Amino acid sequence: MPMMKVVQVPFAGGEFEWVDRPIPMPRAGEVLIKVQACGVCRGDVVAKQGTFPGLSYPRVPGHEVVGTIAALGEATSPWTAGQRVGVGWHGGHCLHCDPCRHGEFGACETALTTGLSIDGGYAEYMIGRTEALLRVPEDLDAAKAAPLLCAGNTTFGALRSCGAQAGELVAIHGLGGLGHLGLQYAHRMGFRTAVLSHSQHKASLARELGADAFIDTSVGDPAAELQKLGGAKAIIGTAPDAKTIASLVGGLARHGRLIMIAFTGDVLHIPASTLLFGERSVTGAVGGDNVEAAIAFSQFAHIEPMIETFPLERAADAYDAMLTSRVRFRAVLTMDQ
Fold first, then answer.
1. Domain 3-150+288-334: which CATH number of 3.40.50.720, 3.60.15.10, 3.30.750.200, 3.90.180.10
2. Residue 73 is inside which H or E element, if any?
3. pTM above 0.85?
């Protein structure tokens, strides 16, 4: 039986294991993907630590997957062998429940999540559901395309729905794995941009990537600084710092929105008056509704993630670098090193 190498989590909280597994065969509505690259995302912590209810182990993490179709199950039209595809966080849906019938596939009552409820891309091969497959252009570098399937899609989707118009101020909180992409998207979309960060040494990079202003959140009042710029129509929260995020709401313009896209389990303490008097709002987003649109815009606008690549067998090193913010700015596993 043909075998493949995978990196798996044996149990919740366990260390990564480098093991051999039989290459799975696709069933009806599935394809076998030969993985070219897989991004390492903070969402992988859920698989590693078992912080999501109902997880089963061993589990292969990874939900920023780019590869080619190696084999087809039944009923897979219009996909073809050798076609370039991707799989993101959303791993499949039923097409029958009420959310699916309204086109809200991410809210499917039995939705599959790549790398959590099904095995992901820390592997030489993986199974993908046809309804969750994404078209990835052949001329995109696999390692640079992979982060667009989650980090790119999330920031692009949040900005596209933030309510700001071209020329209005949009602030990006954090200049890391999500923020450096969000800043590029905001700049290319025609927004006036400000970066909020406690890392003053990132100011020059922020300018290079299109920031019109840089605000150091470790000194002074960042909300007041945003108001000096006219107030932000939207603030995109890409850094998991609840205390700082809560302090930024006062920097929103009237009818402005703070959109959280970084996960934090901490409580946001926001005075109701801050929301009431400016008719401001705080919301969250876990991804855009069209990953292929994020990929297409990235290609059109020449937006690329800043990445560091690791061979598959060094998945543990890539994960640790991501977790401790030592990678600049996205770690990606590649299968050809």
1. 3.90.180.10
2. none
3. yes
pLDDT means over runs of 10, the chain (337 residues): 96 97 97 98 95 93 98 92 97 95 92 96 98 96 97 96 96 97 98 96 97 95 97 96 92 97 88 93 85 97 97 98 94 87
- Torsion region of 89: left, alpha or beta (phi above 0 gives left; psi -120 to 50 gives alpha): alpha
- With vertex at residue 124, the alpha carbon angle to CA 65 and CA 87, rounded to the nearest 5 degrees, is 20
Listed residue (206, 203, 204, 199) closest to 179, CA to CA: 206
CATH (residue range 152-284): 3.40.50.720
CB of 37 closer than 8 Å to CB of 145: yes
The amino acid sitting at 109 is E
Determine if residue 282 is left, alpha or beta; phi over 0 gives left, psi from -120 to 50 gives alpha, anything else beta.
Answer: beta
Identity of the residue numbered 35:
V
